[in-house]
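Risk register update: the risk of archive-format incompatibility is retired. Evidence:
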Amino acid sequence: MTGEFTDEVINLDPEVFNLPLRRDIIHNVSVYWQKYGKILYNRAKGFGDVRGTGRKPTPQKGQGAARQGNRRAPQRAGGGVAHGPVPRDLTFPMNNKVRLLALKTMLSAKLYEDKLIFIDSEQIELPKTQLLDEIISPFKKDKLCFLTSQDIDENFKRASSNINLLHVKHA
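Archived output:
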């Protein structure tokens, strides 16, 4: 956590860090997360929702007026909207195994691009954002994701909660 590079060799799991790049899976999962929980609430009143009678406004023949069927028709003032917006749920199902495969693929891609950084421990003495920001400032060119397999240190969790480009996940 001092920000210094070491020559220590790390053995990585080949099931996670030796996968080929699957752009299709990464794309599907990114679209899934963009649309996750997104619901369109816009709604217009249609033909059946507008108040009014179902009676013909003029007789079919004999008055010299155009043929009209209903006072609620879309072409009349106060009528319903034809083909208006309706509430829609944009989410779609995605298997957990596919999401996990996308995460493994992205970690493998970051390793191939040499953009993956490992730290020896996430222990910091005070839960201060400024301390953690100084430590990770050389690496903050891109979005950072910190994955850990054990419980996260409480000071590290509190210090990282206010850094914009750092996401701490429990793997």
